[in-house]
Each structure stands twice: as C-alpha cells, then as structure tokens.
C-alpha cells in the first residue's frame, strides 16, 4: 500500500496534508465546544475569539515539549525545529500550554462559568478532537507510523521503509472510545458532582497514552517520558475521581432537590 501523499500542490502553492488535517481538527474542536456551551445555556460566543490563541498555545506547547524531549536530534538539525509537518507534536505539551490559556481566556470572556464546570464541558471535546486529529494529523505526516510490522494491518508511511504499525489509527480508536465513555457517563449520571468528567477523562486518556507507547511504538529499554507522564496523569485522574465521589457520598442531599437534566446535545 502506498503512503498517503504528505504534500500536494495548488498551482505554485505547496500544501501540507498534515497542516490541513490539523486545521480541520481545531475548527471542529472550537465548533463542538461552542455547541456544548450553548446547549447548557452558557456563554459561547467567546469561543470564536479565544480559539485562535488556544490553537497557537497548543501548537507552540506541543512543539516546544517535543523539541526539548528530542534535543539531541534538534541540536544537530536546528533547521528541523519549525518543520512541524515532519512530525513532532507532543500531546502533553499541547495540553500544558492550551489548557491554562483556555482557562485564562474563559475567565476573561465568560467569568460566570466555573473553572471545573468548564473543564467538564471541554473534556469530551478534547477526546473527540484527538480522535479526529489522529486520523487527519499524524496519519498524514512524514514518519507517522509506529514500529515495523509484517502483520496484515501494516501500512506504509512517507519517510519510513516498509510497513508500519498504524499507531495513529489505533490512537484514534482509543480516543473515540474515551469520548463515548465520557458522553455515556454524562447522560447516565446527570446529577453527578463537578469534576467527574475531567477526572475520568484524565484517567482514561493517560492510560491510553501509556498503552499506545508501550505496545505499538515499542520503545526499547526503559520507559520513555510519554509512558511515565501518561501513567502519572492517569493516576491523578483516578485519584481525583475517587476523592470527588467520596466527598459527594458524604454530603447530605438537600430535601426536595431535583437533579439537573443533562442536555440532549452531545
């Protein structure tokens, strides 16, 4: 199977498929976040104003962390640092920069939305965007495949010799499952405490990042940083979820209180 072209031309203009995929993913995330806010009767017009800076923060953070993690290579090849279409965006770096940026902008434009409530609303958006982004991003970039394989599911990737484990496709499936679980919990438990969704999302996504690296990228020797951070993130998520649920169980119910129904919209 031939690899998907990583560039194409529109007249004299060279377009990178990877960049187009990321642009579509970011636009989807902004649209979906605004939709979820609107479905809950919360301010949503600010998302259009904030999206640009959140996207910039995500890309810068993802690239900075990747470069730092692979400083040996980039010290010898500094010209590769801005070439993001050759691969090299850290999910954790994107989160580390984009989430605080999003919180600060939300506090500026929509101060009435509690931070934890906003994170609960945004977490399924992140899971859905990651699922889509893996197919439209890493799947279409240079050196996007995992370790070599002779299995039937192996795929060819630009810049790599032989068939490779299609890690981006597996990642997309896991992220999609995380999204479906989060949505199912939202609908099944409309009166859940704040923080349940973001904690559950961190627990599931951190665990999936660990298994992606461990099984499909097949890092030899010691665990790499992604595996360690994935496990730490997952542990923090599960611990936070346990604490939230324990506190909710101890809190006496208010007489006559009715659960607030979850909006039907995804």
Task: Please state the structural category.
Answer: mainly alpha
Physical arrangement of strands within the biggest beta sheet: 1-2
Low-confidence stretches: none
Terminal Cα span: 36 Å
SS element count, helices: 8
What would your notes on this structure say?
- The chain has 266 residues and is mainly α.
- It has one domain.
- The protein contains 8 helices and 4 strands; from the N terminus they run E-E-H-H-H-H-H-E-E-H-H-H.
- The strands form 2 sheets. The chain has a two-stranded antiparallel ribbon. Strands 3-4 form a two-stranded antiparallel ribbon.
- Strand 1 and strand 2 form a beta hairpin.
- Helix 5 runs antiparallel to helix 6 (167-188).
- The protein is globular, with a radius of gyration of 20 Å.
- It starts with 6 loop residues before the first strand and ends in a 16-residue tail after the last helix.
Which terms would index this structure?
266 residues, two-stranded antiparallel sheet, 8 helices
How are the SSEs ordered, and which strands pair?
Layout: E1 7-10, E2 13-16, H1 17-39, H2 46-69, H3 71-76, H4 91-109, H5 115-136, E3 155-156, E4 163-164, H6 167-188, H7 196-217, H8 225-250
Antiparallel strand pairs: 1-2, 3-4
Short description:
The chain has 266 residues and is mostly helical.
């Amino acid at each position: 199977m031939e690899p998907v072209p990583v560039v194409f031309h529109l007249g004299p203009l060279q377009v990178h498929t990877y960049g187009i995929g990321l642009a579509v993913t970011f636009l989807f995330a902004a649209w979906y976040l605004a939709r979820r806010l609107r479905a809950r009767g919360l301010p949503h017009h600010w998302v259009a104003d904030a999206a640009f800076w959140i996207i910039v923060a995500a890309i810068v953070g993802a690239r900075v962390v990747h470069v730092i993690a692979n400083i040996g290579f980039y010290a010898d090849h500094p010209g590769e640092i801005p070439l993001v279409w050759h691969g090299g965006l850290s999910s954790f770096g994107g989160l580390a920069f984009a989430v605080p940026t999003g919180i600060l902008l939300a506090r500026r434009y929509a101060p009435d939305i509690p931070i934890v409530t906003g994170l609960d609303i945004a977490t399924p958006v992140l899971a859905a965007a990651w699922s889509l982004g893996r197919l439209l991003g890493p799947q279409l970039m240079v050196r996007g495949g995992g370790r070599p394989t002779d299995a039937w599911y192996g795929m060819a990737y630009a810049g790599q010799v032989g068939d490779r484990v299609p890690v981006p496709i597996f990642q997309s499936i896991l992220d999609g499952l995380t999204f479906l679980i989060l949505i199912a919990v939202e609908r099944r438990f409309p009166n859940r405490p704040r923080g349940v969704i973001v904690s559950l999302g961190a627990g599931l996504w951190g665990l999936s990042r660990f298994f992606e690296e461990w099984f499909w990228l097949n890092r030899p020797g010691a665990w790499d940083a992604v595996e360690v951070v994935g496990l730490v993130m997952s542990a923090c998520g599960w611990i936070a979820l346990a604490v939230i649920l324990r506190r909710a169980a101890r809190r006496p119910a208010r007489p006559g209180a009715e659960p607030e129904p979850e909006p039907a919209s995804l």
